[in-house]
Design brief:
The protein has 362 residues and is mainly alpha-helical. It is 79% helix and 0% strand.
C-alpha cells in the first residue's frame, strides 16, 4: 500500500493545533513562528520556481508563458526588480512596447543601479523611435557599467540611424574592443560599422569589416551585397560581381540580388549581362515592373527600339502609373515617327503628372 506523503506545512499545522489544545502560550508562539517561516520558505520556493521557468520560457520564445510566470513572481514579491525586467523583455518580444516600458520603469525605480534595465528600456525606446530617450538610457547604463559592450553596440545603431556615422564607428569600435571574442554579436557589430564606414566614404575599412562578418558567418547574404556595392564604388567591378554571385549561391531566387547585379553590370558596360539578369528576374517574378522597365532602358541603349517598346508596354500593364515608361516609350515612338503613338504616351504621362504637354513638330 502506498504511503501518503505528509508535507512539512501540514505537519506544522498539526503541531500547532496540538499545542493550542495544551494551552501553553510560549509553545503556541513558537509554533506560530515556525509556521510563518515555513510559509515564507514555501513562498520563496514557488517564486524561485516561477522565475526560473520564466527565464526558460523566454529562451524558448514562449513569451506569454514567461509573462504569466513573472507575474506570479511579482504577486509574491512585488519589489523584484529582476522580475519586472524580465517580464518587460517578454512584453518587448511580443511588441507590446508600452507594457514593456512600464515594467522597465518599475525595475529602475526599485533598483536604480540595474544597468540591464536601462539597456532594455533604451532598446525598447528605439523601437518606438524615442531616440533621445534611448540615448539617455544608454548613457546611464554606461555610467553604471562603463564596460558594458552591448550598450555601445546599441548606441552605435542609433548613431547610424541618425546619420552620425563618426559616432557610430566610435561606439562599434569600443564594443569590439571590450568583447572581441563574442562571435555571435561581433558579426553584427562589424556589419553595422561597415555600413558607417561606407557612408563616410572609407571603403577600404568597410570592406575589411565585411570580410570579418563573412569570416564569422559565410552565409550572411547582405554582407556580400554590401561588400559588392563597396567594390563597385571603387570601380572594382569584377570583385563586385563575384560577391553578387556568392550571394546568389545562398539565395538563388532573390530577385533583388539579380537587380543589383544588373545595375553593376550596367556600370561596367556589360549590357548583355544586365539584360540576362533582368530576364532572370521576370522569369522568377513575372509581375516585376522594374525589371521590364530597366531592361527596356538597356535595349534603348542597344538600339533595340521595338524590344524596348515591348518592355515598356509590359511594365505599364503591371504598373499603369509608371510615368517614366510613358515618356521613354513616347520618345522612342517619336524617333520612329509614330507621332500618334508618341502623343498618346505624352498625353497619358501628362494626365498623371497634370503638367502641360511637350510640343511635337511633325
Amino acid at each position: 500500500m502506498k504511503r501518503k506523503r505528509i508535507s512539512s506545512f501540514s505537519l506544522t499545522i498539526t503541531v500547532l493545533v496540538s499545542v493550542l489544545m495544551t494551552g501553553a502560550n510560549s509553545q503556541i508562539e513558537q509554533a506560530v513562528a515556525a509556521t510563518n517561516q515555513i510559509i515564507i520558505a514555501q513562498s520563496n520556493q514557488d517564486s524561485e520556481f516561477y522565475f526560473s521557468r520564466g527565464i526558460k520560457r523566454i529562451q524558448s520564445r514562449n513569451y506569454q508563458g514567461a509573462i504569466d510566470d513573472f507575474t506570479k513572481v511579482l504577486q509574491q514579491n512585488p519589489r523584484s526588480a529582476e522580475a519586472y525586467l524580465n517580464r518587460g523583455l517578454a512584453f518587448a518580444r511580443l511588441k507590446k512596447y508600452q507594457e514593456a516600458l512600464k515594467d522597465f520603469d518599475r525595475s529602475i525605480e526599485i533598483k536604480p543601479d540595474l544597468a540591464q534595465a536601462y539597456l532594455s528600456r533604451g532598446i525598447t525606446r528605439t523601437q518606438v523611435e524615442d531616440y533621445q530617450g534611448a540615448f539617455s538610457d544608454y548613457n546611464q547604463a554606461l555610467a553604471i557599467n562603463p564596460k558594458y559592450s552591448e550598450v555601445y553596440s546599441q548606441r552605435g545603431l542609433i548613431h547610424n540611424r541618425l546619420e552620425n556615422f563618426v559616432g557610430a564607428v566610435d561606439d562599434f569600435t569600443e564594443a569590439l574592443r571590450l568583447n572581441p571574442q563574442k562571435k555571435s554579436s561581433s558579426a553584427s557589430i562589424y556589419y553595422h560599422r561597415g555600413l558607417a564606414y561606407t557612408q563616410l566614404g572609407d571603403y577600404e575599412k568597410a570592406i575589411a569589416d565585411y570580410n570579418n562578418v563573412l569570416r564569422i558567418n559565410p552565409k550572411w547574404t547582405q554582407a556580400y551585397l554590401n561588400r559588392g556595392l563597396t567594390y563597385a564604388y571603387l570601380k572594382d567591378y569584377s570583385k563586385a560581381i563575384a560577391d553578387y554571385n556568392r550571394a546568389l549561391q545562398v539565395q538563388p531566387n532573390n530577385v533583388e540580388i539579380y537587380l543589383g547585379r544588373a545595375n553593376i553590370r550596367l556600370q561596367s558596360k556589360d549590357y548583355q549581362g544586365a539584360i540576362t539578369d533582368y530576364t532572370k528576374v521576370v522569369q522568377i517574378k513575372p509581375n516585376n515592373a522594374d525589371a521590364y522597365y530597366h531592361r527596356a532602358n538597356v535595349k534603348v541603349h542597344l538600339q533595340d527600339y521595338q524590344g524596348a517598346i515591348d518592355d515598356y508596354t509590359q511594365a505599364l500593364k503591371i504598373s499603369p502609373n509608371l510615368i517614366d515608361a510613358y515618356y521613354n516609350r513616347g520618345n522612342i515612338r517619336l524617333q520612329l515617327q509614330d507621332f500618334d503613338g508618341a502623343m498618346g504616351d505624352f498625353q497619358k504621362a501628362s494626365e498623371i503628372l497634370q503638367q502641360p504637354l511637350p510640343e511635337i513638330n511633325n
